[in-house]
Amino acid sequence: MNERYVPKLDLPGSKQRMKPVDAKSWIGRSINRVEDSRLLCGTGKYIADISLPRMAHVALLRSPFPHARIVSIDKSEALNLPGVIDVITGSDLKDFVGPSITFSSPAVPQDVIAIDKVRHVGETVAAVIADDRYIAEDALELVYVDYEELPVVNDFDDALNSSSEQLLHPDSFSSNVIYDKEFTFGPVDNDFNSADIVVKRKIRWNRSSPQPLETVGALASYDAGTGKFTVYCNTNMINYVAWLCATSLGVSSTHLNIIPTLSGGSFGSKQLLHKVVILTAAISRIINRPVKFIEDRLDNMTNADSHASDREYEASLALKNDGTVLSLSYDVIDDYGAYFQFGVGSHGNTFSQVTGPYRINSVRAHVVAVLTNKCQQGAYRGFGSEVSNFVLERLMDEAAHVLNIDPVILRQKNLIDKSEFPYIIPTGNVYDSGDYQKVLSNALSMFGYEKWRTYQEEKRKEGRHVGIGVVCCQERSVYSATEFWFLNDLDNPGFELTSSPESVFMKIDPAGNLFIRLNSPFWGNSPETVATQIAADLLTLDPSCIDVSYSDQSTGFDSVGPGGSRYTVMIAGALCTAVAKLKAKLLKVASHMLECDEDQLFLIDGSVCEINGNRKKTISEVAMAAHYFRLSFPDEDNYTSGIQATAVYDHPFTTLPAKDRSHVGSFYPMVGHAVHAVAVEVDPNSGKIDFLDYVAVHDCGTMINPKTVDGQILGATVQGIGTALYEHMRYEDGQLTTASFADYHMPTSMEVPDLIRVGHVETPSPYTEFGVKGSGEGGRMAAPPAIAQAIEDALTPYGVKINEVPLTPQKIFQLINDSESR
Amino acid sequence: MEICDSYIIPAPRNVVWKALNDPVVLGCAIPGCKSIEQLSADTYEATVIAKIGPVSAKFKGVLRTTDAVVPLSYKIHFEGSGGGAGFAKGSANVSLVDEGDDQTKLTYTASAKIGGRIAQVGGRLVDIAVKKISDEFFQAFCQAVAYEGKPTSCQPVETIALSDTGHRWGVIAAGISILVIGGYVAWRVF
User: Fold this and answer.
1) In A, what residues contact B, Cβ < 8 A?
2) Rounded-to-integer distance, Cα B32 and Cα A23, Å
3) CB count, 10 Å around CB of A510?
């Protein structure tokens, strides 16, 4: 084989300040989560817990039709119901609300309440505002809408062949194919020509959706005196793009303050909740009362803009006879639903790790995105990379089958070696570090691979169907801003932003306690725990002296928020900067108090101590002096009263994409790794899957708190099991038939393994503080291919090929039947 | 969604037919029926408060009959709208045969398209509810015909009929379509 293809990138040097060895006493310990006491005791404040005087409530009338013109809306009967304050339609709102926020370019317009046309079942048609939610819900039945049905665009074929009345956005686009581009990274043709074999699979990844316990909500109040809006919301990006909501509301950003509440889970689904912010704020202005709306489950399922990837792949892998993988080529079509809020961001995301942990020389990707009459896609744990992991691992299994090589050995042979990092993959993304062989060997020994193979043989003789799955998956983390636009058309790329910062405010009060204010909201992860452990470590404070809170939009700054497994890495960076400033001030003040040079002082056990001597001052003593005894210090600026600091941390290791997109640059470079090993038994008579064992070994670099990492891995793995086996947002003739948990089947304790055994390898990143990488999504990225491989393995006697998720019992049963009738 | 079922009605076919021509009987038998209006020879409108469990909602159904083979069979096209709850529309074939001297067998096969919240709750669940409510309807209907077409004990409803058209089968279909919608309500509590 010729020399490996490596895209030309100018990689920045490492900006790491804190090495893994700089973690002393708190980082790496499984302390109890700081967040837990109020969350577990039910005393946390969510949207539903917040009330304002004179607060009105909203219920939303939802379209029963997937595609229809709104001919007329008769709200008179609803308005006559006692307790109803107002009924507001899309045309009523038009005077108060401008265009919606979208990352796609060209923009696909979306209205908070549909104006002339509905494009999916569940789209909002009118808002009923009443004294309480019960009255508002009752009044929904009294709003009469006259619809004129339009032809329904159900699937890929419909979308590809749409014209005239089937077009979802005929004013803006003359086709329902919203995106169609091909990318070639490296010598794909050469690699395919020099291959001994090419394996192919057609793979269907059906639409699933994150299901947070708490749905989307907001409580808005408008102050007619000041003309200002205050909105409580469980959204995420308040200090990144939420100022755009002010633009939608037609006011200056000084006149909108979004106050984040606790979020009862997101998994990506509450990334940017502009619709609910704008809706409640605008209504609050119209009726001049505070207004609350929170989705019920049907609202959320049909209209939360959070359905996930809905793709079909035709993919090929080129290999040598010895199992060396050369190249990957695929055509993918993705059904985005009726709108396009993040563009094809989830396909840009796949470019971060499309070649997996393997040495694959080149990639061709043909990406087609279509619009149909379904709820639009949003983000869900993995944001598309879980799908490309699945596709690649299915191809590896097919190759192992064709070449008659053990699937584990085939993987082992192609893994990138630990000496090769930083490793630039053909798309241009960089893998910072890793030890994939070690993760694999640890997983195999924890799992007992040989033992399970023997067991499988024994059971097969008894006519039972045990299967084993072992997959190697990447878990990219810490996205940079370029992925929002680099797949857009070169001549219309949209807003080419390059900043994705995270920031903190910190102060030490006169009592010596540390206050940390994060500029992104709580999202179900463990930001308070992480911030506490890092700050405690760096300032040698006890965690009980540390308070962590959250800023709102008016007081916060430059923070993207959780997502893409970035948050721990990014606040670690901001905390290190802020702590350095606090520490400098502490030492400055203490040096005057102790009459010695600052470089003779260091922090230990909550005190500032002399290196050579016994004298010390506690941090509280220094803080007290800094706050209240200004005249004890020189009349110089660096003794200004108080001890506080702000810090903004930018992405530490990102580059621009190539102008011609021959590569997309380093945009998701902190790459963790996971091996999931699973043993299942399939009952061919019912299609039921039983888990016999499940091992997940992850490497997310240095762990701040192993217990919370375990939590992330377990939770994500269970979601991966749901995606693999049960969860499917199923539309039939435009109607969502799985809009409640009676039909949208999430795994319960009965459907998951009794025990998921978690192991860790720690290969620190050389680019982040302490060597941390993200760990929020890997479980969902690795579980589906592991389970699919295990089921296919179990059903070898039937020759069944698994090319689809979810693998419901009905589906498995049908696959077995089909194979038997062949 | 396909629904088909049949019922034995303990009355001769002519009695059944007469009862079916009587809006008063039908209004009583359809659970929650508030009005039945005959708009033309083959078009009807019915309003029903479907109250099942803790929730009630008002539905309007319009239906049209075609392919009548009096008094043996009919095809009925129906459309019912429950506002926020969604809609049901479709058609049903209804037939009537003698079952001995004093019994009549009624069979219907309906294919329905449901939308909005009704569909979101799932056809599987709606089927069960429809069956339950259909049973209720026919139980009340049988009771009525057992007294020679005279209603026994039910509240009168507003009924507006054209003179003697004999096209009453549609009303049953209205009941069915509305019951489909009502079925949704029963399960919404989940």
Assistant:
1) 61-66, 121-122, 140-145, 298, 301-302, 732-743
2) 71
3) 14
Q: In chain B, which residue's Cα lies nearest the Cα of A122? A: B116
Contact A142 B83 (CB under 8 A): yes
Contacts of A561 (CB under 8 A, 6+ apart): A236, A237, A238, A239, A240, A502, A520, A521, A523, A567
H/E segment holding residue A722: helix A706-725
A160 to chain B, closest Cα gap in Å? 25
* B189 has pLDDT over 50: no
Please give the interface size between A and B, counted as residue pairs whose CB atoms are below 8 Å apart: 71
Q: Are B114 and B180 in contact (CB under 8 A)?
A: yes
Residues of B in contact with A142 (CB under 8 A): 83
DSSP of A256-315, one letter per residue? EEEEE---S--TTTTS--HHHHHHHHHHHHHHTS-EEEE--HHHHHHHSS-B---EEEEE
Cβ neighbors of A457 (< 8 A, separation 6 or more) are none
SS3 content of chain A, % helix, strand, coil (to 5): 30, 25, 45
Cα angle A17, A23, A24 (rounded to 5 degrees) comes to 135
3-state secondary structure of B168: coil
Q: Which residues of B touch A134 (CB under 8 A)?
A: none
DSSP A749: T
Q: What percent of chain B has pLDDT over 70?
A: 63
DSSP output for B25-63 = HHHHHSTTEEEEEEEETTEEEEEEEEEETTEEEEEEEEE
**DSSP strand pairing (A56-62 vs A291-294):** parallel
Residue A74 CB partners (closer than 8 Å, separation 6+): A143, A144, A145, A146
Residue with tokens 């890929």, as numbered in its chain: A156
Q: In 3D, which of A219, A238, A214 has the Cα closest to residue A306? A: A214
Which of A71, A84, A141 to probe by mutation at the B interface, max B CB count within 10 Å? Answer: A141
- Which helix (H) or strand (E) is A232 found in, with range? strand A228-233
pLDDT given at position B160: 57
Residue B14: band (very low, low, confident or very high) from pLDDT cuts 50, 70, 90: confident
Residues sharing a CB contact under 8 Å with residue A13, sequence separation 6 or more, in sequence order? none
Q: What is the ipTM of this complex?
A: 0.73
Pairing of strands A362-370, A601-604: unpaired
Chain segment A284-322, per-residue pLDDT in tens: 999 999 999 999 999 999 999 999 999 999 999 999 999
- Is 70 exceeded by the pLDDT of residue B50? no
pLDDT per residue as tens digits for the range B136-185: 877 888 888 876 544 444 344 555 554 433 334 434 444 454 444 443 33
Question: Where would I find the H helices in A168-242?
Answer: 188-193
The encoded tokens of residue B48 equal 């029903």
Asked if residues A551 and A511 have their Cβ atoms less than 8 Å apart, the reply is no
Profile chain A (822 residues) by mean pLDDT over runs of 10 residues.
Answer: 87 97 96 95 95 98 96 97 98 87 87 96 97 96 94 98 96 96 98 98 98 96 97 94 92 96 95 93 97 96 96 98 98 98 95 98 98 97 97 98 98 98 98 98 98 98 98 97 93 92 98 98 95 98 97 96 96 98 97 95 96 91 98 96 98 97 97 98 96 98 98 98 98 92 93 97 98 97 98 97 97 94 74
Q: Which residues pair with A313 in a beta bridge?
A: A203, A332
Hey, are the CB atoms on B121 and A736 less than 8 Å from each other? no
Taking a C-beta distance cutoff of 8 angstroms, is the pair A331, A180 a contact?
A: no
**How many residues in total does chain B contain?**
190
Q: Do B83 and A144 touch (CB under 8 A)?
A: yes
Q: Is A146 helix (H, G, I), strand (E, B) or coil?
A: strand
